[in-house]
Every structure is written in structure tokens, then in C-alpha cells.
Amino acid sequence: MTDPSGPREIAAFALMAAGVGFDLLGCVGLVRLPDVYNRLQAGTKCVTLGTFLLLLGVILLSGLDAMGWKALLCLAFLSVTSPTAAHAIARAAHRSGVPLAPGSVLDRYAEDGEGREGPEPAGGPSGDAGEGRP
Amino acid sequence: MNAMDLLLAGLLLGAALCLWRARAGPTPADRAVCVDILGILMVGFCAVLSARTGRDLYLAVGLSWALLSFVGSLALAKHLEGRRFDD
Questions:
Q1: Is B86 within the bounds of a domain?
Q2: pLDDT of B3-52, one tens digit each?
Q3: Contact A31 B84 (CB under 8 A)
Q4: Is residue B27 domain-resident?
Q5: Separation of alpha carbons B60 and B47, rounded Å
Q6: Are B17 and A27 within 8 A, CB to CB?
Q7: Is residue B87 part of a domain?
Q8: Range of the domain at B32
Q9: Nearest-CA residue of chain B relative to A40?
Q10: Averaged in consecutive runs of 10 residues, what is the pLDDT profile of chain A (134 residues)?
């Protein structure tokens, strides 16, 4: 594609420019924010939205041909996998004992006992008592 | 100069910021977050590259990159949690 000329190309290019802007904001948040959970929040949400906008721009630019269908498939995969990976990393960070930032006021996951260390004394780093597996 | 090159340069700048945090991150969880987010950024980079060149090969690369990055993030999360991979 050369420089955007028609209205559809201009709309697609605006979507993609907004996507790159969101990606950059997410990366700035990744650099600037104080602890892992804040960085995960900024990074995952902003970068996922930015990549969605980029893929929507590609779909709008090319229509539903081979490229558009691949972009749509990519968008569907990302909308499933990105929140799952972010949730797994946040839980793993909390369970591996990464402290919260000094200004944090609430830690509901620790108040719930992390689903693992309740009344039972069995612990250990590899015990899976929270899964309720017999 | 093509207008898409600006978008590619912006995405590369974001990837550089992400790699800086992966180098400077104080905990291993920071680095896992950076690997995850770099994967999503590279999917967007492949999408822009595909729109820039008009070939759908790059979107296939981005699609497989999204799936492999997801599996890698889950494996890193399991490893951080101190559990084995078949747990």
C-alpha cells in the first residue's frame, strides 16, 4: 500500500495509527509504573487494545480476503489468549511472593489466603492443596 | 517514504521500551510480563508489515506467534509459581 488515498484507506490508517498510539502508551506504562501488577495492568490492556485496532485496520483495509480472514482469526485468538496469559502471570507473581508497591491499599487475594494456605498446615512451594484434587 | 513506515517505527520504539523493562526488571515476574507483552506487540507489527507489503504471509507469522507466545507465557507462569509443567 502506498500513501492513503481513498476514504476507506484513510479510515484504516486512522485505526492503525490509534493502535500504535495505544501500544506506545502501554509500553510507556510498562516502563514507568511501580510494580509488577501495575505494569501488567497497563501493558496487557493497552497493548491488547492497540493490537486489536491494528488488526481491525488491516481487516478494513483489505476486506475479507485471505489477509482479512487471517487478521480476524488472529483477533479471535488474541481475545482469548491475552487475558488468560495475563491472569496466569498475575497469579504466579502473587504466589511467588512479589511484593506490592508501597502505596498499595488493598490485597484481596492475600486476604482470601490465595486459595491455598487455609487452615490446613500442608504447604510447600509445590503443594496443590488449593485445587481440591483427591 | 511510506506512511506505514511511521507505524512500524512506533511499534519498534514500543518494543525497545519493553525490552528495556525486561532488562531492568527487578523481579522475574517483570520479565515474564515483558515477554508476554512483546509477543502481543509483535503480532501487531506483523499485521502492519502485512498491510505495508500487501502479502498475507506476515499475518500467518503473527498468528503462529500469538499462539506460541501464549503457550510460553503459561509455561513461564507455571515455572514462577514453582509447579511442574504437568501439574
A1: no
A2: 888 999 999 999 999 999 999 878 888 999 999 999 999 999 999 999 99
A3: no
A4: yes
A5: 9
A6: yes
A7: no
A8: 4-81
A9: B33
A10: 73 92 93 90 90 93 88 92 91 85 81 59 43 41
Nearest to A1 among B41, B54, B56 (CB): B54
- For residues B64 and A78, the answer to whether their CB atoms sit within 8 Å is no
Q: Looking at this predicted complex, what is its ipTM?
A: 0.89
Q: Please state the domain count of chain B.
A: 1
Contacts of A28 in chain B (CB under 8 A): 17
- Distance CA(B29)–CA(B79), nearest Å, equals 10
Q: How far apart are CA A3 and CA B68, in angstroms?
A: 33
Q: Do B28 and A77 count as a contact with CB atoms less than 8 A apart?
A: no
Please report the DSSP string for chain B in residue order.
--THHHHHHHHHHHHHHHHHHHHH-SSHHHHHHHHHHHHHHHHHHHHHHHHHH--THHHHHHHHHHHHHHHHHHHHHHHHHT--TT-
B8, B46 contact by CB (below 8 A): no
CA distance B61 to chain A (A): 10
Cβ neighbours of residue B67 closer than 8 Å, sequence gap 6 or more: A77, A81
Per-residue pLDDT of B48-83, as tens digits, reads 999 998 888 999 999 999 999 999 999 989 888 877
Give the gap in angstroms from C-alpha A85 to the nearest C-alpha of chain B: 6
